[in-house]
Design brief:
Layout (H helix, E strand, L loop, with lengths): L6 E6 L3 H12 L4 E5 L5 H6 L1 H20 L13 H24 L4 E4 L2 E5 L2 E4 L2 E10 L3 E3 L25 E5 L3 H13 L2 E5 L11 H14 L2 E3 L4 E6 L5 E5 L2 E5 L1 E4 L3 E3 L32 E3 L10 H16 L13 E3 L5 E5 L2 H6 L4 E8 L4 H4 L5 E8 L5 E7 L3 H13 L4 H6 L20
Parallel strand pairs: 1-2, 1-6, 2-3, 6-16, 8-9, 8-14, 9-10
Antiparallel strand pairs: 4-5, 5-6, 7-15, 11-12, 12-13, 17-18, 18-21, 19-20, 20-21
Length: 451
Amino acid sequence: MAQTFDYDLMVIGAGSGGVRAARKSAEFGVRVAVVEESALGGTCVNVGCIPKKLYVYASEYGRAWREAQGFGWLGERPTFDWSTLRDNKSKEIARLNAIYERLLAAPGVDILSGHGRLINPHEVQVGDQIYRTKHVLLATGTWPNMPEIPGAELAISSNEVFDLPQLPDRILIIGGGYIATEFAGIFNGLGATVVQSYRGALFLRGFDSAVRHFLAGEMRSAGVDLRFDHHVHSLARNHSGAITAQLSDGAETFDAVLSATGRRPNVTDLGLENTGVTLTDKGYIAVDNEFRTSDPAIFALGDMTGGWELTPVAIAEAMAFSQTQFGQQPTLADYDNIPTAVFSQPPIGTVGLTEEEAVAAGHQVTIYESSFRPLRHTVSGVEERSLMKLVVDAASDRVLGAHMVGADAGEICQGLAIALRIGATKADFDRTIGIHPTAAEEFVTMRTPRD
């Protein structure tokens, strides 16, 4: 007797990857449901990329006002109201949540609100209801790690930071990844005193070494108190209601402590023990290159599989999954030359190999590097500088990596990603006429290799 299913595909998790997989699969004519216990859009829309970028914008306006004085804009210093930013952010997120709901409804995807738990590979429980499904796609992303120190419950994570009741005067940020670094810039720009504590010798592990050192110098010049080889031993509430942090260099008091010490795969209470799904040694869902888990009925993609933790990557994986499984268009996700940005202040843009990665891969490299003060700051009075770097294979002349620290770095490196994907050489860069005066033209005018 043939099995009957309520759905051909049930997607657990309505983040960027889950929503795209559900939409695309439904367009191929399969019956799809999405299970989500929180707001549609996942981390990126609700407590990640979108609100973070809005807060970055907010934090830049104060400096823009100071810069404007050099261009003749004079007047009373403006004041910042945290509640206005917070509430306007919430309105925008609600608008995006509604858009995601419409995007799912248009191709006929059912939205099931609640926690999804696997009873077995073909049954998913949502609340009191159990649904039968031919396939399951797990796309529940990751969740913030919290430090294992006394008083850790007093710290907040990136999930809560956007909705603080008020802007802290002093904030301690624990961590050296992009989230910690971005929020250090945000709070510094909004006027808070910021200490960023990282246990390693230099933050942003995995990025090009020149980029890391250069950004550290620029952030310190902007007023962020960066402390490397530094540890937070404990947190405690003091008599005034503030938080006393016992640090490796003494005790200090803060109004808030943000922990941004990494993220872990969000697999809690998914019912994986009722399936054949296996995990990697780091706790991520183990999948093959078509996102199959070790259980033939269950797939997984996005951050929870331990690859690139980037929204566009999850979307690309979702497209490949749907086209392969339901569209008769076998497709593999392509992870070469993925561009990315850190919305630090100044921001980082990067694509391709770092110098260290290129050397480790056996390339003989030629490095082109330029540091300069952008034109606007010759009048604004701000001392901020920009860095641009090209990593070139000496034998083939192919550009292996492009890296930038400075205004609009993400926008510029998005364009450079196209050049790297089609195999552009340094000679191609040299033959390209720049747009003057722009910062981006520096990428096509660097002629002298670094010693």
